[in-house]
Design goal:
The protein is an alpha+beta fold. The protein has helices spanning 22-28, 31-34, 45-57, 106-120, 136-145, and strands spanning 5-6, 10-14, 62-68, 74-84, 89-95, 126-132, 148-159, 162-172. It has a domain at 5-125: Aminopeptidase, CATH 3.40.630.30. Bound molecules: coenzyme A.
Length: 178
């Protein structure tokens, strides 16, 4: 079981079945949110329930719901999935589902807490991610967090109606954890 994490403006709580809500479902069906994600819309409440059950059952997945501390509002999710203990790696992903809260620095703040947790507490060596090249908001965020490009998978998949490149990025633990 993972623990809750805190920053100035945010609380991150472990994601579980209690998050099977109409708000979360609406994010999954908002084209603005899913256009560069693997989920691809047309999501049903039963799909969400099954997914959350799989999250609860998976020990190699760390998944937090992001809340604004002051109001308690759930605004997005962040995960490390999977955690690869053998190689000391983790694959990061983020979805700020509530688009009213975009551009306020919440994704950066939540990511910094999780990256710090992975490096200090879990002593992971490296965190990796994949991002569709056209997703400029996410790319900028990742560069600001300190991720650098490791490679490009050309014409890797269809997103937002077109064939896109997928960029692979990574950040290394500055504390020598090996
Ligand atoms: C991409 C996403 C996570 C950004 O969340 P956010 O809370 O708006 O991001 P922040 O406000 O923390 O922004 C952090 C940095 O990212 C950059 N950024 C964020 N949104 C941007 C946009 N629309 N255009 C350009 N840069 C942007 C900025 O440089 C910003 O840094 P700054 O404030 O120091 O200038 C969010 O839009 C999202 O979840 N989108 C849908 C799902 C998705 O695409 N997830 C990523 C899959 S790889």
């Amino acid at each position: 079981m993972i623990s809750s994490l805190n920053s100035d403006r945010l609380v991150l709580n472990p994601l579980d079945l209690t998050y099977c809500t109409s708000e979360y479902l609406a994010w999954m069906n908002n084209p603005e949110v899913y256009r560069y994600l693997e989920t691809g819309g047309d999501y049903k409440i039963e799909d969400l329930r099954k997914y959350l059950e799989s999250v609860e059952a998976n020990p190699f997945m760390l998944f937090w719901a992001i809340h604004i501390k002051e109001t308690g509002k759930h605004i997005g999710n962040i995960k490390i999935d999977p955690v690869n203990k053998r190689h000391s790696l983790g694959e990061y992903g983020i979805m700020m589902g509530d688009s009213d809260e975009w551009g306020k620095g919440y994704a950066k703040e939540a990511s910094n807490i999780v990256i710090d947790y992975c490096f200090r507490e879990l002593r992971l060596r490296k965190i990796t991610l994949g991002v569709v090249e056209d997703n400029s908001a996410a790319l900028k965020l990742y560069r600001k967090l300190g991720f650098t490009i490791e490679g490009v998978y050309r014409d890797h998949g269809y997103y937002n109606g077109k064939l896109c490149n997928l960029i692979r990025m990574a950040i290394f633990n500055p504390i020598d954890a090996r």
